[in-house]
Amino acid sequence: MAFLTDRKRAVGWGAAKSGTEHFWAMKKSSVALLVLIPFFVFTFGSVLGSSFEEVQAYYARPFPAIIAALTLIVGFKHFNDGFQTLIEDYVHGIWEKVLILGMTCISYGAAAIGVFAIAKMAL
Amino acid sequence: MADVNRGNRPLSPHLQVYRPQLNSVTSILTRITGNALIVAALMIVWWLLAASTGEDYFAVANGFVTSWFGDLVMFLSLWALWYHTLAGIRHLIWDEAKMLELEKAEPLGWAVVIGSVVLTVFSVVVLW
Questions:
Q1: Cα separations in angstroms, B46 against A26, B4, B60, B78
Q2: B29, B31, B35, B52: best to mutate for the A interface, most A CBs within 10 A
Q3: How far is A93 from chain B (nearest CA, A)?
Q4: ipTM higher than threshold 0.85
Q5: Domain range spanning residue A31?
Q6: What pLDDT digit, counting tens, does each position of A102-119 carry?
Q7: pLDDT tens digit sequence for B40-88
Q8: For helices A62-90 and A21-47, what crossing angle results, to 10°?
Q9: CATH of the domain at A111
Q10: For chain A, what is the domain count?
Q11: Residue A18 has what pLDDT?
């Protein structure tokens, strides 16, 4: 203990029980999405409405496949972090935990399904 | 804290008693668009899964996603996505403690609203 600074001992023990991790996570994913979203809109948008064979061929190409996979991973993480804030603002008690837990399952599950589907078409 | 009167105290002004302003409306819309995008996101994941599974399943998912209802959801979500993206840029600017003054924040809010419509029209025209 004697080797810890006062600051080090105080970190994480404020009223919020945590520091700026959530804020920083949102900031990182938002900057990443700023790059990914325009690419995703114009790659996914151009293939939506195509035939089965065209879609398969399109996602066999590396660029659209990697953009789609990254957008789903970062996007669902960003969504889940944002949804957590929404719930923390309006719902309290047991439902607060249930809803955050449930949406975390949906977010990571959907991201995994999407990445699996893209990998299957790409490889 | 033992003798504090916990009931019947005046609350700080909240949504119901506030006159809507550009900054409050654009802020609320940021939250609504961000969370509503889950609908389109799950539809896209379903569409991708179907496309990777087989022709018959793809016909089902693609039929729904490109139906008039699917088109409507995708069109509204495209606007929501551009709106949320521009509102996110505004947050990144505000995080640097820049453009927080009313006379700068006001045009910034309009830039987000108008920019989202322009980007939506632009991407629909390009992708049609």
A1: 26, 53, 10, 17
A2: B52
A3: 19
A4: yes
A5: 21-122
A6: 999 999 999 999 999 999
A7: 999 999 999 999 999 999 999 999 999 999 999 999 999 999 999 999 9
A8: 130
A9: 1.20.1300.10
A10: 1
A11: 66
| CB atoms B66 and A42 under 8 Å | no
Kindly state whether residue A49 falls inside one of the protein's structural domains.
yes
| A33, two tokens | 């999405």
* Contact A10/B at CB under 8 A: no
Contacts of A46 in chain B (CB under 8 A): 127
- Which pLDDT score, from 0 to 100, does residue B50 have? 97
Is A32 inside a domain boundary?
yes
**Chain B partners within 8 Å of A83 (Cβ):** 35, 38
Answer whether B31 touches A (CB < 8 Å).
Answer: yes
Domain boundaries, chain B: 23-127
pTM to 2 decimal places: 0.88
Strand locations in A12-101 (E): none
Task: Identify the CATH number of the domain defined by range B23-127.
Answer: 1.20.1300.10
Neighbours of B103 (CB within 10 A): 7
Instruction: Find tokens 């699996």 and name the residue.
Output: A116
Q: Is residue A4 domain-resident?
A: no
pLDDT-derived band at A16 (thresholds 50, 70, 90) equals: low
Is A69 inside any structural domain?
A: yes
How far apart CA B29 and CA B24 sit, in angstroms, is 9
